[in-house]
Structures are given as structure tokens and as C-alpha cells.
Write a structure and sequence with these properties.
This protein is of the alpha/beta class. It has 4 domains: 6-279, Aldolase class I (TIM Barrel, Alpha-Beta Barrel), CATH 3.20.20; 297-358, H-NS DNA Binding Protein (Irregular); 370-392 and 458-522, Double Stranded RNA Binding Domain (2-Layer Sandwich), CATH 3.30.160.20; 396-453, Double Stranded RNA Binding Domain, CATH 3.30.160.740. Helix content is 39%, strand content 19%. The protein contains 18 helices and 16 strands. Strands 1-2-3-4-5-6-7-8 form an 8-stranded parallel beta barrel, surrounded by 8 helices. A 3-stranded antiparallel beta sheet has the order 11-12-13, with helices on one face. Strands 14-15-16 form a 3-stranded antiparallel beta sheet. Helix 1 packs across helix 2, helix 8 packs parallel to helix 9 and helix 16 (438-450) runs parallel beside helix 17. It is elongated, with a radius of gyration of 28 Å.
């Protein structure tokens, strides 16, 4: 499908309206630079008439050069009771200093009468007048026809009149918005066919995901000739979110053969996805199509055996095409072939017939029977494998551990302290540290004890901590599984611990986290073991 398609990112404005998301000015600038790197055409920076932070952002962006993207300021049509030159929103758009402006207006009679509280004819005039006013100031104007599909279903003629008003005002693009996110793909197709017959201006699509149809609706719109696609990275946005640009970009380039980013920039897609999640302080959705950690993860023995022969058996695209990777999940479902593949990813060569392989498989099944789970704890699994086959010795030994929690009064915050005695080589080291809780105190004490021997541990950060009570008949004495995610400036890794005692389980996971970091800090020559 040959076409030129504009990608318009609204992560910094529409995405920032998502629950639990807030971007600082510096955050927004970093995201802009990352989006510019992958070739996004337009980046909506915010609403300068809505808050001082967005005004500061647009001022800062004037000094930051971009290679591909153009920054866009967003706002609304003028108020019904004000002239364009007296409208604070339109003046703020002009002050923002961008060459391109996007304004939205009402397409649905319900919104005109109930939300704006004005007449249908007055709404048409303020759309036409607002666009024309900005055009008169030599601005390129994109017009977002808010609630267009709901408006069309309620009153087709009036919805088309609003599009005509924006066209008469001089809008360069008319963006049809499924603002409530409830339109179905077949409705998009039918309505689009009618609009394009009467609208001489290139059309775009802005879809929300309230009915889980945003990606499908966007792709249908592209099939119908949409010239511009608006969306957010990872689909973040108000309520259920906007259309996910990660999925849209991958589907456009890999499925519909529409080149949008140029070159091999699609290979940066996963990196951009995780970057935005990190800046937004959101846990990445591991099951997100294309870019999620689990998107190309295989667990069943039959699946693993098949993808080893031909990845197409269970992968609809190559993971590398979107910057992802194939993963083999280790569990008691894993067969010999899957285990060999996983072990070889550690730099260890082992045949399927080697007796130690069966030992590792047996140990894995026994541990999972006891409650261990290695799907999210590959750091612990690699340590287990290396210790089982004799290629790794622990870097330290725990001699003693004491954790105390003291609360003197009901309204006081508990005081937690951990004391640890460890042995490194022939040296015994004892340290104590306080923390916000037992696990934090343990982590601090362990670092205090080991950092003088292993300075690289200063790079390690505990990112996430999860506890799950395993099914059992012992109530509060049941086993718990602790999963810890740690990271440094290069990568992240997971580790696991299981015990009836939550402190002991936490210690196991923390100790594995430290051991894994030290393992990866060693030279590759000492890590690789050939032909076991």
C-alpha cells in the first residue's frame, strides 16, 4: 500500500491526561528528543492556554533543534461570547511560537447545546472564525473535529457542516476524532467514505480506546485514505487511553507495508516504548503487542521446540524488526530443547544428551514444586544453572542476619534496622543499617557490607518488590514468594526467594540480585564455559 502518512504524537498532551501520569518540562523535552530520533512528523507539546508548565515547555523548545519532528501547540476554538482577537486561548496559541497549531471544535449537536451552551449556527461561526484568525497570523492549522463520529451518527448534515466551516476557515488538515472511543471499525469505514466525498482537505484520525477498537479503527481509516494518524506511545491517555502508536506503527510498516518512519527506525520501537514508560513512572505492560517483554516469549515445550526449528511457527513477525527479542521462559513445562537454548543464551555450550542437563531439569521441577517461579526471575535461574554445573561460586557467605522492627507508640512510624554478618574470602564483615521497612533495611545493610569489596554494587537499584502468598493450609504461616526487580544503567534483572518467612524469602531474592550483578561484572572469559 503506497501512501505518505503523517504520524502525529500527542503523548505530551493527551497522554499526560492519563491517570497517574505527570510530565515535568524536562520530561517532555526528553520525550520529544526520543520521538524525533525515530522520525515522528509532528509532536503535540501541550496546551499553552491551560497551564504555566506548557508555556515554559514551548519557550524551552525554541532553543532545541530537531531533525525530523515539528512541535505543535494545542488549544480550542474561541469562546462563543468573545471575538478571536480577545480570546485568551487563541492568544496563548500565538504566543507559543510554533508554526503549526491544532485546535478542536464541536461536531456533535449534543456538545454544542449542552456543553458550549450556544446555538448550532454560532458554533459553525466560531469554528470558521477561529481557524481563519490563526491562518491570518500565518500559522498552519490542523482542526480536530471532536466527537465527530458520535456527532455524525446523531446528525450527519451538521457534523459535515462543522467540517466545511473548518475548511472554509483554511484548515490544512481535518482530523476526525472518536473522542468517546466507542465507534466500531465498520462505522469508521462507512462514515469515512461519506466524509471524503465532500471534504477537499486531507483527513486524519484520532481514536480513543474505550471499546478496545482504537488500533483497528485507525488502520481502517488509513485504508480509507487518512493522511494523518494521531496517537500516543503505549496508548496512554484519559480513561482507557488513546490509540497505541507502538501497535499502529508496527502494523502500518510490517502488515500494511506503509513506510512511515523511514530507514530502519522501527527497530527503535521497543526502546521508545520502555523509555516513555520509565519517564511516565509507569510499569511497562509486558503483554503489550510487539514491544512488550512477553510479546515473543515462549513457555510451552511444543512451542519452544517449534520456534527453534522455525520462528515463524509461533511468531508473526521477527522480534528484531521492532527492537524486541525472542525469549524462552523457564518453568516445569520446559523440555530439554528449551533448556538447552536457555543455557546457551548464558554463553554455555551444552548438548541435549549431557547428564548435567537432566540434573538441571530435575532441580528446576523440584524448586517450582516448592513454590519458586523463574519466569520473572531469570537472574536467579542463571545463578541456579551455573551453580548446578559448577561454573559459579558465591561471592559472599551469610553468617548471621538480624532484623528488628520497633514501634514505641501507636502513632509513630516503626523503626526498622537490619544487622548482617557476611564473609568475603577470608574477611568477615558486619554492618547495620536502617530502612523504611525490613526489606529496605536488609538491602541497605547488605550494600554497606559488600560495597567496599565490590564497588560496582553502587550502580544497583532496587526497582520493584512483589510478595505473593502461595496456596497452602497454614494461614499466616503459608509460604511466600518474593520477586525483586533490580537494575543498573545497562539492564534490569529479576530474582526470586521462597520461604515461610518473608524476611528469609526477601533475603534470598536480594542476595541473588547482588550475585547476579557481580556475575555480569566479571570478564566474559570467566563466564563462558564451552562443551560441558
Amino acid at each position: 500500500m503506497e501512501t505518505f502518512l503523517e504520524i502525529y504524537d500527542t503523548t505530551l498532551r493527551d497522554g499526560a491526561q492519563a491517570e497517574d501520569v505527570s510530565f515535568s518540562v524536562d520530561d517532555k523535552i526528553r520525550i520529544v528528543q526520543k520521538l524525533d530520533e525515530i522520525g515522528v512528523h509532528f509532536i503535540e507539546g501541550g496546551w499553552p492556554g491551560a497551564n504555566p508548565r506548557d508555556i515554559e515547555f514551548f519557550q524551552a523548545m525554541r532553543a532545541i533543534p530537531l531533525q525530523h519532528a515539528k512541535i505543535v501547540a494545542f488549544g480550542s476554538t474561541r469562546k462563543a461570547n468573545q471575538s478571536a482577537d480577545a480570546d485568551a486561548n487563541l492568544q496563548a496559541l500565538l504566543i507559543a511560537g510554533t508554526k503549526i497549531l491544532t485546535i478542536f471544535g464541536k461536531s456533535w449537536t449534543l456538545h454544542v447545546t449542552d456543553a458550549l451552551g450556544t446555538s448550532l449556527d454560532a458554533n459553525l461561526e466560531l469554528i470558521r472564525d477561529s481557524v481563519a484568525y490563526l491562518r491570518a497570523h500565518e500559522k498552519r492549522v490542523f482542526y480536530d473535529a471532536e466527537h465527530f463520529f458520535d456527532g455524525f451518527k446523531a446528525d450527519p448534515n451538521y457534523a459535515l457542516d462543522t467540517v466545511q466551516a473548518a475548511t472554509e476557515g483554511g484548515a490544512e488538515r481535518i482530523i476526525l476524532c472518536d473522542t468517546n472511543g466507542g465507534t466500531m471499525p465498520w462505522e469508521i469505514q462507512s462514515i469515512w467514505e461519506q466524509v471524503r466525498k465532500v471534504c477537499p482537505v486531507p483527513l486524519g484520525i484520532h481514536a480513543h480506546n474505550d471499546a478496545e477498537m482504537a488500533v483497528a479503527n485507525t488502520l481502517v481509516a488509513v485504508q480509507q485514505g487518512a493522511r494523518q494518524v494521531q496517537g500516543t506511545i503505549n496508548g496512554i491517555g484519559e480513561r482507557c487511553g488513546n490509540v497505541n502508536l507502538c501497535s499502529v506503527l508496527a502494523n502500518l510498516e510490517l502488515k500494511m507495508k506503509v513506510s512511515v518512519l523511514g530507514g530502519d527506525r522501527l527497530r527503535q520501537l521497543r526502546n521508545v516504548s520502555t523509555f516513555v514508560s520509565e519517564i511516565a513512572n509507569l510499569l511497562p505492560n509486558k503483554r503489550q503487542p510487539y514491544v512488550g517483554e512477553a510479546a515473543f516469549a515462549h513457555k510451552g515445550g511444543v512451542h519452544i521446540h517449534a520456534v527453534q526449528k522455525n520462528a515463524q511457527t509461533y511468531e508473526h513477525v521477527t522480534p528484531e524488526s521492532v527492537g524486541n527479542r525472542q525469549r524462552v521462559l523457564i518453568s516445569d513445562h520446559t523440555g530439554r530443547s528449551g533448556m538447552v537454548q536457555k543455557i546457551e543464551s548464558f554463553g554455555i555450550s551444552m548438548s541435549k544428551d549431557h547428564p548435567r542437563l537432566q540434573e538441571v531439569l530435575t532441580q528446576l521441577k523440584d524448586l517450582e514444586r516448592d513454590g519458586y517461579q523463574y519466569e520473572g526471575a531469570e537472574g536467579s535461574f542463571e545463578l541456579m544453572v551455573r551453580e548446578a554445573i559448577g561454573t559459579h561460586q558465591p561471592s559472599f557467605e551469610l553468617l548471621e542476619l538480624l532484623v528488628t522492627v520497633q514501634k514505641r507508640h501507636a502513632n509513630e512510624v516503626p523503626m526498622t534496622q537490619a544487622t548482617i554478618t557476611v564473609k568475603v574470602g577470608d574477611v568477615v564483615e558486619q554492618t547495620a543499617a536502617e530502612g523504611d521497612g525490613p526489606v529496605n533495611a536488609l538491602d541497605n545493610a547488605l550494600r554497606n557490607a559488600l560495597e567496599k569489596f565490590y564497588p560496582e554494587l553502587r550502580e544497583v537499584e532496587l526497582i520493584d518488590y512483589k510478595v505473593r502468598v502461595l496456596a497452602g493450609n497454614h494461614g499466616t504461616g503459608s509460604k511466600v514468594r518474593v520477586l525483586i526487580e533490580s537494575g543498573d544503567h545497562k539492564s534490569t534483572w529479576g530474582t526470586v526467594g521462597v520461604s515461610e518467612n518473608i524476611i528469609e524469602a526477601s533475603w534470598q531474592a536480594l542476595a541473588d540480585s547482588i550475585e547476579y550483578k557481580l556475575l555480569k561484572s566479571e570478564s566474559k572469559d570467566t563466564l563462558n564455559t564451552a562443551d560441558l
